[in-house]
Structure formats: structure tokens, C-alpha cells
Amino acid sequence: MDGRHTALGNIPHMTDGDIETLLAALTRETRRVERVDLSFGAVWIKRYGTERPPVWTKAQTGLASLFGLPFLRPSPALDSKGMTAREIRRIETFAAHGIPVPQVLYASGNALVLSDVAPTVTARLDALRDTDPAAHDALLVRCAADLGALHAKGLCHGRPHPRDFFVAGDGIGFMDFEEEPEAAMPLADAQARDLWLLFLQLTDRARLGEATARQAYGAWRAAAPPETEAALATMIRFLAKFLSPTRLIGRVHMGSDLRRFLAATGYLSEVLLAPRAADASKAGKDD
User: What is the domain partition of the chain in residue ranges?
Assistant: First the structure.
């Protein structure tokens, strides 16, 4: 983006009252993400540069250098205009690959106006959680399958979470493209981190337990590039070193973050690091 504004006329059916309401909301700058109801429906204002960079960003960079592990690197830090431009560029890239994404209706400086893409996957999961566990978990598997299809197209989301997905017909759409890990690491590492981040949510939310995790991983793997699974194995091999100390900490206080780490990393360790039957049959022959 070069600083030009997208005309408000790109928003359909705008009345004078809609324009007044939207402009007032844009100038308020009260919240980072704000829903604005107009005569034809809702739009969303997303503002950039309103939050401080996470304190652990520098620590991530240091750890990545110390251990020589690219997947630990954070996305490149940008100012508010750079973040706005990055989100627009990534939305356009995903759309060009046929991935459902929100429409950019207006862009100016450090703010975007985006089309409404409800329902989010989080909202649908919340509705199904207790009423239809099978459909609930089928939706989680769908998320993994569509993430794998996205990876097969050479793309990476960067922060895959059910709140950043939306239901698009029979598939999944993606939004919130603030992260760009593939700009800081090889694409395979960025995609591997995508899968792990999704599984932090998926294994914790699954109503049918490991059966859902198994189906989800299989659905992702069926589409994902082989080099991404290899990068995932390297990543999990490193993270698995922290499973035992995390379990010890959990005996004192098992917070939600620890629980998700244990569930996701533990499951993926079993899938990717467990000795194969052929390898197991050789065990002891060299003793």
C-alpha cells in the first residue's frame, strides 16, 4: 500500500447516515477492533499500532539464535502503516489463491474497514460444543484439513486460531493476517508452526479426545507438503524436551497455557517421534 485511500464508495449501499456513522467511528479510535453497524449490515474497523510489541519478542529472537532454530523467530516488526500494508497484501494474496478472506472496504493510514464474515469458527464451536459433539469435532477436523490445503498452495497463516477462522460454505475462511513468519524463517518452518499452533487449540477443545486429533492430523497431512511435516518433526523434537518439566510445574498449577502445550505437544510427539514398528523390531539386536 502506498498511502492511497480506498474510497468509501467501495462499501455497498452506503447512505449518508452510514458515511457519517463510519467516519465518526474512524475518528474516535477508541478500540483496536470495533464493530460498526450500518444500514446494510456490520463492518469491522481494525486499527494498527495501538498495542506495544510483546515483551517476549526479543527473547524469541535470542532463543532462535542460541539454539539455531528458525521456528522460534518472531515475524518482522513493523510500524502501524507497515502492518496495515502487510495485512492488505496478505489478504490479496490469499484471495488470489481462492482462499475465502474478508474484503478490504476502506484503508487509510493505520486503519482498515473490513467486511463482516460471521460466523467465526469459535462461535460455531461454542454453539455445537454441548449440543452436537460430533459436529463440533468435525469442524475442528475441517479446520486442519483446510489449513493443510492452504499450506499446499505455498501459504502460511501465522496465527491459526478458531477465532481467526470463519465458516465459508462447506469450508473454512481465514482472517487476521498480522503475522508473517515466512518472512523470518523458511516456509516449511512457518507452516509447521501453523500446525502446532492450531493443535494447541484443537487438542484442548476436542470433545471426542484423541480420535479427533488423529483425524485432524491425518486431514492436514493428506494435503500438506512433505517438507512441512519434516520441519514439524524437528520442531516437536525440540519442544518435547520441555514436556517433563512442564508436567512438574502443572502439579503445582495447571494453567490453560500449560494444559494446551502438554496436550498438543504430547500428541504430536507420539505421532512424529515414536519409534516405528520396523525400528522397534531392531531394538536389542545390536546389544
Answer: 27-115, 121-276
